[in-house]
Amino acid sequence: MKQLLQLYDKYKSVIAYLFFGGLTTLVNLVVFFVTSSLWHWNYQIGTAVAWFVSVLFAYLTNRVWVFHSHFTTFGALGREIVTFFSVRAVTLILDEGIMWIGVSLLSQNEMLTKLVDQVVVVLANYFFSKWFVFRKTKATSSMND
Questions:
Q1: Which residues contact 74 (CB under 8 A, 6 or more apart)?
Q2: pLDDT band for position 136 (50/70/90)?
Q3: What is the pTM of this model?
Q4: Predicted pLDDT of residue 137
Q5: Buried b (16+ CB within 10 A) or exposed e, 125-140
Q6: pLDDT tens digits, residue range 73-85?
Q7: To 10 degrees, the CA torsion angle through 53, 111, 96, 132?
Q8: Would you list the domain boundaries of the chain?
Q9: DSSP characters for 4-57?
Q10: In what helix (H) or strand (E) does residue 99 lie, and over which residues does it extend?
């Protein structure tokens, strides 16, 4: 049991990211389904709307439960938000590109393409968040230790 707790402690940020990443993916898929299938919007517009809603959800959950980010000023919070959305904009380009290739070039089903697309996007988002947005600086690490 002690070994399981040690493993959990070692990988809890990854476990939390996978959990909230799964919920973020679900938010993205549901918003995409509503905009594309129920409202009959163009899949590229639906992808952009789903991206925005899911990135907002991801920012809130990642900041609190995955990376435990604590800001000391509103300027620091603003920089964190801008960095998070800017980094995620890279994966919006990836998201739109995969959707365009799958739907427009290969004539695949929109939802099936979206499912495949989300696997790639979730992985890219984790690494971008860890490396660029919520990275621990020496000053932050010493304050949290």
A1: none
A2: low
A3: 0.80
A4: 54
A5: bbebbbeebbeeeeee
A6: 889 888 888 988 9
A7: 50
A8: 2-136
A9: HHHHHHHHHHHHHHHHHHHHHHHHHHHHHHIIIIIS---HHHHHHHHHHHHHHH
A10: helix 74-99
